[in-house]
Amino acid sequence: MTINEMKERLGEIILDRSFKYSDNPPFTLASGRQSNYYFNCKPTTLDPEGMNLIGAIIFDMVKDSNITAAGGLTLGADPIANSLAVISYQKGKPIKAFIVRKDVKDHGTKSAIEGNVKAGERVLIIDDVITTGGSTITAIEQANKAGLIVEGVITLIDREEGGRENIQKYMANIQSILTRTEIMAIRAKRNSGGKVE
Q1: pLDDT tens for each residue of 98-130
Q2: Which end of the chain has fewer CB within 10 Å, C or N?
Q3: CB–CB of 57/3 below 8 Å?
Q4: 3-state secondary structure of 121
């Protein structure tokens, strides 16, 4: 399966398991904005086929980089980082997973970052969906505070609502596996019986 075929199949899984549309009432997003459509990525990122596709696609995107670990704000980033870790190990170039806590523990190490990473490592920040980019920016800031060198950001879905531009104020290198436009194109193709419109 080529990377483009993998992306198309992943888009189909997202449409089947993670995409909701409603004319009324609209969905309230984590950002507080309202929208007629909603992506709940967990049914895709926690699915065996979905995880395998996501891990393979992201590995292909970063295989020539010098990153040693990938992670982001819990909970959305966790299964994505884990899928990359497993696939990267199977491909012979292990990339560790780490978790950025939403709330720093008030006991133990009081660390915002969980995982086998240390200051100076070059890392990738992962997110499932970007709308405003807030959770991705929080993850970048926490990684920087921990002394990690953030090389880039990869998101599963870019809703194309300004989040990418907000993140680019902190990090120029941002990529998405799929954009809202690409997912809607897969949806339109499906609704037209597989014919490209």
Answers
A1: 999 987 666 555 688 999 999 999 999 999 999
A2: C
A3: yes
A4: coil
